[in-house]
Structure formats: structure tokens, C-alpha cells
Design a protein that fits this description.
heterodimer, A: 121 residues, mainly beta, seven-stranded mixed β-sheet, four-stranded antiparallel β-sheet, 11 strands
Chain lengths: 121, 107
């Protein structure tokens, strides 16, 4: 059974760096075609694709946020970490991590429950 | 960056009716298009990938069609649990993007 769970601070101040951790189980990030992505959703608004870490260590970022994002993995802990610099109140929202597998292409078949992040001084 | 435009923004229908949701891409994404359902307070759930393939456990009243720039999600007969927000997502480029969503509400 594949599960993912996001963790990190619920409140960050403007200009700070947000670091979120996705801890997963039930799959290996070394398996061909597997990836873990991050997606966010401001309150009452649409989903926004942020970043994706691939099995072969390739990383992809949203062009509009690329300068602020870093995605990495800790294989020993089965974790994928997302760092976002220079946080602003508009970055407030729920942050999800999700799994993709080769059979679904780039679609995310399993999602974490999400973690709410508020940016405020 | 590929932009996805979903229409309509809101669809008001009764249980048992047919729902037709549209997703248009700013450039071709081939068949690299997925649909998700999201209910309040929940994470999205994958319904359709590859434009027309149903994900595991998804009822056959959900169907997807289209390729290139124009895609459709059809719910043949709405069940009470189908009233939710639906998002399309493209993964035809090196990065993904989501549409703005269509809310299917009870009329």
C-alpha cells in the first residue's frame, strides 16, 4: 500500500524559507518511472503544480517559481524535501505531495493528505 | 508554460443527469492529460489519465476523451457523491500544469 504524508511548519514569516518533507512508503523512488511531486492550493483556489523529483534524479520545476524552489530526496529515510525561499502571504495554502508511476505517465495516482501553511508576520 | 482553461466554471445539474466538462490547452499536449476529482477538505483523486484511461477503482460512468488541445470529461449519470470540483492536468511538457477547475453542484 502506497502512502505519502507531508510535514513541516504551519506558520512561516514573510521572507523566510519554507521546508516541507514528504515521507512515503510502499514504493521505491529508485524504480523506473516513479516520481514524487509537490502541488499546492491556496484557500478556495485551484491546484498549482510546483515540482517533481524523478527516479533518475531528474528534477523539474514550475517555470514561474523555479528560482525559489529546490526539490531533493533522502533515500535512506524515504523522503522528498521541498524548499521554497522568500515566502510571501500569497504562498499561503495547502501543500500536497503525490506519487506518479510510469503506467499513469505524469499523472499523480496517490496523494498525501496535505499540510496547511500560513505565511504571516 | 502550457495553460489549461476549463469550462464552465460551475455546472448546476441534478442527480441522474449527464455532466460534460471541458479542458482546453494553449498548445498540444498529445494525450498527456489527466482528470481529478476533489471534495471539500480532501486531497484530489485521480480519475482519468492518458486522456481516456480510467484509474484503478474509478466507476465506468466516468469517461475521458480528446487529444491535442481539446479534452472532455463526461459523467454519464451523476450520483450524489459526484458533486465536487474537477481539475484537468497536463503532463505533455517537461513540467505540469492544472486547469482552474469546474465545480459540479446540485441544481
Amino acid at each position: 500500500q502506497i502512502t505519502l504524508k507531508e510535514s513541516g511548519p504551519t506558520l512561516v514569516k514573510p521572507t523566510q524559507t519554507l521546508t516541507l518533507t514528504c515521507t512515503f512508503s510502499g514504493f521505491s523512488l529508485s524504480t523506473d518511472g516513479v516520481g514524487v511531486g509537490w502541488i499546492r492550493q491556496p484557500p478556495g483556489k485551484a491546484l498549482e503544480w510546483l515540482a517533481l523529483f524523478y527516479w533518475d534524479d531528474d528534477r523539474r520545476y514550475s517555470p514561474s517559481l523555479q528560482s525559489r524552489l529546490t526539490i531533493s530526496k533522502d533515500t535512506s529515510k524515504n523522503q522528498v524535501v521541498l524548499a521554497m525561499t522568500n515566502m510571501d502571504p500569497v504562498d499561503t495554502g495547502t501543500y500536497y505531495c503525490a506519487h506518479k508511476v510510469i503506467t499513469t505517465g505524469g499523472a499523480f495516482d496517490i496523494w498525501g493528505q496535505g499540510t496547511m501553511v500560513t505565511v504571516s508576520s | 508554460e502550457i495553460v489549461l482553461t476549463q469550462s464552465p466554471g460551475t455546472l448546476s445539474l441534478s442527480p441522474g443527469e449527464r455532466a460534460t466538462l471541458s479542458c482546453r490547452a494553449s498548445q498540444s499536449v498529445s494525450s498527456y492529460l489527466a482528470w481529478y476529482q476533489q471534495k471539500p477538505g480532501q486531497a484530489p483523486r485521480l480519475l482519468i489519465y492518458g486522456a481516456s484511461s480510467r484509474a484503478t477503482g474509478i466507476p465506468d460512468r466516468f469517461s475521458g476523451s480528446g487529444s491535442g488541445t481539446d479534452f472532455t470529461l463526461t459523467i454519464s449519470r451523476l450520483e450524489p457523491e459526484d458533486f465536487a470540483v474537477y481539475y484537468c492536468q497536463q503532463y505533455g511538457s517537461s513540467t505540469g500544469t492544472f486547469g482552474g477547475g469546474t465545480k459540479v453542484e446540485i441544481k
